[in-house]
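Reading is simple: the token line describes the chain's fold. The lines below illustrate.

. . .
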Amino acid sequence: MLQLLKNGRWNVMTLLITISILIVLAVLLVTIWTTVKAYNVKHTIDPPQENHSDSHNQ
């Protein structure tokens, strides 16, 4: 993918595109991983507490 120019230097455009694609893929993988972990979380709610005090039942 990376091509050498006649003077032996890397083609800067190809190098930047390759690095950019790798960064995009890394961000995509982290995003997918985070989303999968979020969907695996089981959300629960606490049951309502019974109030045994008569002062609030008016």
Q: What stands out?
A: The mean pLDDT is 80.
